[in-house]
User: Fold this.
Amino acid sequence: GYWDLLEDDVDLKELEESEGKAMKKKMAEARVSMILRVEDLQLTHMTSQNPKVVWDTLAKVHHACSFGSCLQLRCKFITAHMSDGQSMEA
Assistant:
């Protein structure tokens, strides 16, 4: 998996040449994997070659942290109810 690349900031300068090449390849694969899974409008936020930077940028862009958005989520949670025939897993 690629999650380890997103959790830790990898410094390619500290790796040996063979490890560096393997890590660059894995980072490129992770970035391509992310690019293939997003809508075209998100590509403008994915300019970095480093998948961690791309991930952090997307997280920052899509993180709603205003008072209004928190209030809206709280209201939605409080007023949520299960529809007839809806399972607990839905």
